[in-house]
Amino acid sequence: MNKVDLQNEIASLYEQRNMLVRARSEAEAKNSGANGNNANEVRKNGVSNSTVSLSERAFAEFSKIGVPDQRFEEWKYAAPKLFKAASAQGALSAELVIKNAMVLTVEDGEFIIEESSNPNMLSGVTVHLISDDNFETDPSVAIAFESILEKKNLPFASLQTAIEEYTIAIHVTGEIEVPIHIRYITNSLGALLISTPTVLLFAAPNSKVTLVEEHVSHQPGNTIVTSLTSVVAQSGSQVNYIKVDHGTGQKSIAHTTADVFSNATFNAYTACLQGGFVRNDLHVRLLEPSADVHMYGVSVLDAEDLADNHTVVDHVAPHCTSRELYKGLYGGKSVGVFNGKIYVRPDAQKTLAYQANHTLLLSDSAQINTKPQLEIWADDVKCSHGATTGQLDEDALFYLRSRGIGMQAAKQLLTNAFVGEVVDRLPVTEVREFVQQHINNTLHVTEIEA
Amino acid sequence: MSSLIEIKNLRAGIEGREILKGISLSVQPGEVHAIMGPNGSGKSTLASVLAGKSEYEVLGGSVEFLGQDLLEMNAEDRARAGLFLAFQYPVEIPGVSTANFLKTAVTQIRKFRNQPALGPAEFLALMREKMKLVEMDQSFLSRSLNEGFSGGEKKRNEIFQMAMLEPKLSVMDETDSGLDIDALKIVADGVNTLRNSDNAFVVITHYQRLLNHIVPDVVHVLWDGRIVKSGGKELALELEEKGYDWIKAESAVEA
């Protein structure tokens, strides 16, 4: 695959989608012709003559950048790897099973109802599949998309908005203890690009929910899989958002946005476990006072893996707190990227914002590119950032070995201690154990250079 | 009786600089040897070389430990065979709890020694018993290893580990540095309790005061990488009184 192939594929996917929507719309018009139903203002499909559709606007936005290359700063490190064939075999990845969870399964971009839980299984949660010419049935969906479109420099998020055919809208009104587990599975061997349904999570005031998004591929391949998730955490709500990438054979490009309102808590946990190629854009806005945001990340890479985490924390309102901690373990010839932007807007006085990115390089050929970017317009704030990169501490290793602990076990202890600060915080036991197991396996098979 | 450790003409250095210039020392089971000497004489280097710290380069000589060539063994195998170094500066390891660390160490050592593994309850009971020896609070078990411990707590933790690992030979590298008199007494009492006819201690120290509590059988004076004088416990008192200058003068004359 090269850039031209991908661009052609994208143009054809967009054209296919438009044809599909046009056909559907014409059929609909015939059926309801007598009623003169033309309430298409909020439609996404573009058949309305009076407004430029969301899809068209999104495609126009995508076209400004197109498929990004190295010259585009935000994709400086990831772009060169986008067209590189995955070197690893599609290793069969362990299965993440979360007891009692509400499971939603998306396979090669299609929602698979037979492999999903009953959408009504939890009281206080509704799940709707909304075809994108039916947004008027749920006004919050249109608002969410408007909010996504406001964001610039996210070519794949725009692309997905332009070409995806339906949306999974999850409304949470109660305090939900069992997690909602969305599995995005890639099996397709030949596809160049798969666009998964966009997920919109609306947490009503004082509700509570945990969303786990698992991206996994079981087959070797180079398919680019885009996903888009938008969270709205209304006042007093608590949202745990977990994203886990594992398995090889896909190139996962995900954009997650969260809008956090007064007294709401948004906790994000991002785990990149040998995903081959994972690009995450996580954008969080703190829109009302006393919003509280935690963002934790752990990347465990080997071979020629790439994990690129771009985060944006946008402090719009005063008296809000954000804490961000990303940790990486990079072995082989893997490449880690961390880019952390923090904006503190003029009104966001009394902001507390912390950011840290710490990396252990387990081999001489692994690399990390880390870049904090803080832009602060308010004057009464506390913001800090820090980044460290290193190898395992020799003195600590010797201390452990001098107590009879073998080299490999000593390295595991120290490495687990390093990532433990993030892993131990994962709020779903099964996910925590899954990530821990993966780290143990990786450390076991990775030849760590002392 | 055969020696626990037999050091012959050991020469070692770091970054091309020779620090130990020919040390010979033989320790029998049941003995306590004190090694004293001024700063820079090579005391800590000796401890590090014996424990197997890789920065140090052995330039010559031999060390036999329980009949094995110690210098051929890596650090973990030395510990498993029964050598213990009480560090002058115990390393802080955030994120690794004292209990987890000890569990790993004891498990690996017992496996090496062909002893059955301890169950969780047995292990906990053992830790509780050994902590009493140095009056350590149980809350230390769940805390990160040495992180935020005071100087005295770190040294007590070293003796606690010694008690857990049951070494044959313990090398104590300036365990008394940074200890107040109460902590010094706790540490010394702990060591005295662990003393028996099978094990031995090499106590490295600047000052005589620790030796009031851990009474040595032999005192050696290390100067410029060599043992220049050996004697009974009264030698330590003499050093305390007169300092090291007379030894330096004496050894200069001999040289």
Can you walk me through this structure?
The complex is a heterodimer of chains A (450) and B (255). In chain A, 24% of the residues lie in helices and 37% in strands. Chain A contains eight helices and 20 strands. Chain A has helices at 3-31, 54-65, 79-82, 139-150, 155-163, 394-401, 407-423, 429-445, and strands at 102-107, 110-111, 125-131, 166-172, 180-186, 193-195, 198-203, 208-217, 223-233, 238-246, 250-260, 265-273, 277-286, 292-301, 306-315, 321-330, 335-344, 352-361, 367-376, 382-390. In chain A, the strands form two sheets. In chain A, strands 2-1-5-8-10-12-14-16-18-20 form a ten-stranded mixed beta sheet, covered by helices on one side. In chain A, α7 (407-423) packs antiparallel against α8. The longest helix of chain A is centred in the N-terminal third of the chain and has 29 residues, at 3-31. Chain A starts with a helix and ends in a 5-residue tail after the last helix. Chain B folds into two domains: 1-75 and 170-180 and 204-255, Rossmann fold, CATH 3.40.50; 83-167, no CATH class. Chain B has helices spanning 43-51, 75-81, 98-112, 120-133, 151-165, 181-194, 209-213, 234-242, 245-254; strands spanning 5-14, 17-27, 32-36, 56-65, 68-69, 83-86, 93-97, 144-145, 169-173, 200-205, 218-223, 226-231. In chain B, strands 6-9-10-3-11-12 form a six-stranded mixed beta sheet, with helices on both faces. Chain B has a four-stranded antiparallel beta sheet with strand order 2-1-4-5. The longest helix of chain B is centred in the middle third of the chain and has 15 residues, at 98-112. Chains A and B meet through α6 and α7 of A and α2, β7 and α3 of B.
Keywords, separated by commas or semicolons:
heterodimer, A: 450 residues, alpha/beta, 10-stranded mixed beta sheet, 20 strands, 37% strand, disordered C terminus, B: alpha/beta, Rossmann fold, 2 domains, 6-stranded mixed beta sheet, 4-stranded antiparallel beta sheet, 12 strands
